Amino acid sequence: MSSLSVSPKPGVHASIWDMTVALLKAVMLVSPRLVNHQKRVALTAGRLARSLGDNEAGVSHVVLAGLLHDIGCLSVEEQHTIQRLDRATNCHAEIGARVLAILDQFGEIAELVRAHHAPAPAALCAPVGSTPFRAALLRMADYIDFAIDPDIYVLEQAAAVRARVEQRSDLFPARAISAFLELSRADAFWLDVHAPGELDGARCLIGREALQEMKIDDLRQMALVFALVIDMRSHFTLTHSFGVAASAAALATYRGVSPRTVELIEVASYLHDIGKLAIDSAILEKNGALTATEMSRIKSHSYHSFTILNAIPGFEQPARWAAYHHEDMVGGGYPFAVGAAALDQPARILAVADKFVALAEDRPYRPGMPQAEVLRVLDDLAAKQKVDPAELGALKLHYAEIDTIRRQAQDQEKTIQRYLLKSEIVDIDIEMTKALASIRWRPENWARRVHARASRRPSPEVVGAGAGSHAEGAEVLPT
After folding, report:
1. Domains present along the chain, CATH in parentheses
2. For 358-384, how does the pLDDT look when each residue is reduced to its tens digit (9 = 90+)?
């Protein structure tokens, strides 16, 4: 193993809460309005659940569902549309539920997200602590937040909102309405919910399970779901994160990196472009060449990836691996302009994998380059010290194997995305099950959950994001 290798057991102490906050921080950079809405819904629904005597896990599920209930918005335009136009459409809720249902620990949370716009008469008489009742609390909290005019001071509207909710026994359980009327008598309720700033109020409602350190498999699974959210936001890099993760893990394995570190390299690779959630989708999807200003915005994404990931407890080292994928050996990269001394082996591996995948994968504006052309470009970058020649040498030695792994991973992501964006819910087919199995999920359990839900409800129309075709050339091939 190279002398640049890191300790085989870097300490990562991330919890479900930590990873949720990381995703919200990413979305906050591009749509603070959306995140603030989700925060208010989470606080309102969580306090209602706690006041009605729901258990610790149930309150946590309600809060996490509130914080993620609009995660199915795949673009800034969709986020704004959800907030200002017809909320009767449920497509973003369905997409969000399908994404979250992939996570083993998010089964009920996905159900709550799916139901947050859908009236459910059965919930009116459902017992406290049941999934239908929790979904009704989330739906009511969403209704309350949309009833408030952001241009009018909240305390001036409190009485009118209370009156509106009191009249909606056709939508919300009587016990939930009574609990809201009791809690909202105090000005502090409204001021707490609408206080700007961090998520401290929501965290106080989270139970011990969501605050426990995640196992590496669960961390990897959550990172993989984040990669889906990142990649589905733009047709420009529709399967890029899966390709980089698979290629980096394979390259690290061939280089003799310890299994534990390989897993963390894979996690960092799934998350390396999380900062792109901070980039306006109009730039990501631009049909044509980017201006200098737009390119400078694009280049900021790796800085945002660092600030988001570095805040996760114990994730400082993988955060650097993720953020350094556009740095080079002579300090001419971005965003930190560090040189070889700051780039350990995982960072160098991830940088080579990122550039390899960007060249080899199909893009909307061109097909993937053949091997000879990929290696010609990478050799040129190595000659200029833009990538580590040693790590590139390992890629060249195992090119056929790594490229096959890359193609399989990106095909798997396409399969999963097709399912997530289907306009009707159908049985999980053999192709989908194989895709899940090949990335080491527990597909048999997940497939049963989704199949059970699919068999008892129709799905609203789900519309995918529009395609773009601009070339992010300076980012793919920094010179």
Report:
1. 31-211 (1.10.3210.10), 216-407 (1.10.3210.10)
2. 999 988 778 999 999 999 999 999 999
User: Tokens 């470009």 correspond to what residue?
Assistant: 377
**H helices of 336-398, where?**
345-360, 371-383, 389-397
pLDDT tens per residue across span 386-429: 999 999 999 999 999 999 999 999 998 888 887 777 655 444 44
pLDDT at 15 over 70: yes
Q: Which two tokens stand for residue 174?
A: 């009587």
Measure the CA–CA gap between 399 and 465, rounded to whole angstroms.
33
Distance set, CA 308 to CA 185, 358, 374, 414, 428 (Å): 37, 23, 31, 26, 34
Peptide bond into 335 cis (omega under 30): yes
Place of tokens 């099950």: 433
DSSP state of 199: S
CA distance 136 to 198: 26
**Residue 278 host element (H or E):** none
Site of tokens 């716009």: 117
CA distance 439 to 469: 29
Q: Which residues pair with 15 in a beta bridge?
A: 213
pLDDT interval class at 11 (50, 70, 90): low
The confidence band for 454, taking pLDDT boundaries of 50, 70 and 90, is very low
- Identify the DSSP state of 72: T
Measured distance between the N- and C-terminal CA atoms of the chain, rounded to whole angstroms: 30
- Exposure string of 337-352, with b = 16+ CB inside 10 Å and e = fewer, is ebeeeebbbbbbbbbb
> What does the DSSP 8-state code read for residue 467?
P
Q: What is the distance, to the nearest Å, from the Cα of residue 270 to the centroid of all Cα atoms in its chain?
A: 10
DSSP letter (8 states) at residue 21: H
Q: What does pTM read for this prediction?
A: 0.82
Rounded to the nearest 5 percent, the helix, strand and coil shares of the chain are 65, 0, 35
> CA 117 to CA 88: how far, in whole Å?
7
Closest Cα partner for 322 from 245, 254, 398, 211?
Answer: 245
Q: For the segment 39-54, what is each residue's pLDDT rounded down to a tens digit?
A: 999 999 999 999 999 9
Tokens of 425: 């819910």
C-alpha to C-alpha distance for 161 and 143, rounded to whole angstroms: 10
